[in-house]
Amino acid sequence: MKAIDFKPAKCSHCYRCVRTCGVKAITIKNQQAQIMEDYCILCGHCLNECPQDAKTYISDLDKVKGWIRSGAVTVVSLAPSYRSLFQFRDPGQVLDALKRLGFTHVRETAEGAALVTNEYRQLLEQKTMANIITTCCPSVNMLIETYYPALIPYLAPVVSPMTAHARLLKKEYGPDIKVIFIGPCISKKAEAYENAAEHAVDAVLNFEEVKRWLRAESIRVKDCDPLPMPQPDPHVNRLYPIAGGIITSVNTTAGSGHETYRKFSVDGVSNCIDLCENLLTGDLSRCFIEMNACEGGCIQGPMTGNAKLSRFRSRVDLEEDVEIIPADDQLLHFSGLDFPTAKIFRDKSPRKNIPSEKQIREILAKVGKYTKEDELNCGACGYPTCRDKAIAVFQNKAELTMCIPYMNEKAQSLANLVLETSPNMTIIVGEDMLIQEFSHAAEKHFHITRKEALETYLFQLMDTDDFEWVFEHKQPLRNKKVEFPEYGFTAMMNLVYIKKQNAVLAILIDITREEELAMQDYMMKLETVEMAQKVIDKQMMVAQQIAGLLGETTAETKVTLTNICRTLLDEEPEDGQGEDAYEHQH
């Protein structure tokens, strides 16, 4: 079942969940984290570690509210860790608060723990198991079934207190009731669904959900009435939520024969893994081992609803509140008769595709790790060693780009390459105008080294009015021509505001040569115009001279022709009419 999920939109490549996950059951695909159900032991620690709150979990809250509205008989199995997680004067106030939410009955899961303690006592007395590992924590059970199936024979064939209590409640109230377990655990959801066929636990809520529900209904536990606690009393079995609590319960309850087993507790996923590795070597035998995936026990479960809770204070409060005496005999009456608590475990280990040494080296080489010395083993990607991460890449559990030192080196290399080879001047300044970056081209144009520039304020090199405008308006300024006569160049300046760094990026393109060419072109045009004007002026003068000459010639021609005409007329006079006729025509 997929009890935990992700909200991809919020995943921000921090890999904190991978680092937190003791069994590396989180894969990164397309720079997004995803739960690998076949590998996950549902410890839930990634829920609290995610800084972006990108993870979610399935909730039975709406289903439970629906049962209450429908009038169904709802019985709460309340995990004993409630005594250290709620603020009250009397434990009975918590019972009253839950009844005000609408639950029919409220009972303590510690009643089921008393039954489990009695089963452990019998196993110790039988002395047939080489080692006995307690099976109250579903995450530990999944850890062994998934990663250490060879240790399954060491798992006590006993159900958890939650399941035992649910069976007890349905025996007492009838099979048609709805049993709702309330506790600090995510893996209890998987346990309930896994055993759904027997209809023991019908729903699982965590303390975080219940606390939100109480706030929504304006119910304050401290203001509730102290109801009498249910009987019979489980007494010492209320210590199950703290590290060593199971052993204390067993020692308080056990009869003769249990001394042949050495007893110790282990809590925290990493410590549990170390113990499992040690058990595989065969170094330990005749041990009764209490294992819990949460450091400090269930009081530090991932869904307590109080991130600031001190497990030390919780432990002290719980120990002070519990009597170290065996449970009432009425509880033990159910065990071993018509109330079986046997549990069967099976090998759930997924098939792993293991790469060869050559394939591992090829993957390492892709991120610049050619020798052992190149393997930093920094753990930033979430895996303890570069080699482990390479294997994860081969198994499609990780991506090459998860290697933060490599990506940082690559980014710096590319950035330096751009800064060193770009012909454009690149300058980055903070709001105080202190230079933060200075490219090689900027060094050449402003006659200052990068090292010196990074200790210099921009106003020592140029006017900063445009930069201040960009900081004030947080808007870009594009394609502004700026002259730097003191440095002997002209540039086209583009300014961009960088929000995340609260800085301004300046890119200055040297257009000095273009400006010179443009000026040369302009001067050539001026010279051409002047030459054309001279030609025009000369042509006009010539035209005027020609016009003058033509005028004189025309006048002379007229006189000459007139004289010729007169001469011709004078040669053939007819009663003096010739000249008069000519004058008349002209």
Word description of this protein:
- The chain is α/β, with parallel strands linked by helices.
- Helices cover 43% and strands 14% of the residues.
- Helix 5 (110-126) packs across helix 7 (161-173) and helix 5 (110-126) packs across helix 10.
- The chain has helices spanning 16-20, 45-49, 61-70, 92-100, 110-126, 138-147, 161-173, 187-194, 207-216, 245-253, 269-281, 311-321, 329-332, 357-366, 386-394, 404-421, 440-446, 450-453, 465-473, 512-571, 577-585, and strands spanning 4-6, 26-29, 32-35, 55-57, 74-78, 105-108, 131-133, 178-183, 203-206, 262-267, 287-292, 425-430, 435-438, 477-484, 489-498, 503-510.
- The protein contains 21 helices and 16 strands.
- The protein folds into 4 domains: 59-332, Fe-only Hydrogenase (Larger Subunit), Chain L, domain 3, CATH 3.40.950; 351-410, 3-methyladenine DNA Glycosylase II, Chain A, domain 3 (Orthogonal Bundle); 422-510, Beta-Lactamase (2-Layer Sandwich); 530-571 and 579-585.
- The longest helix has 60 residues, at 512-571.
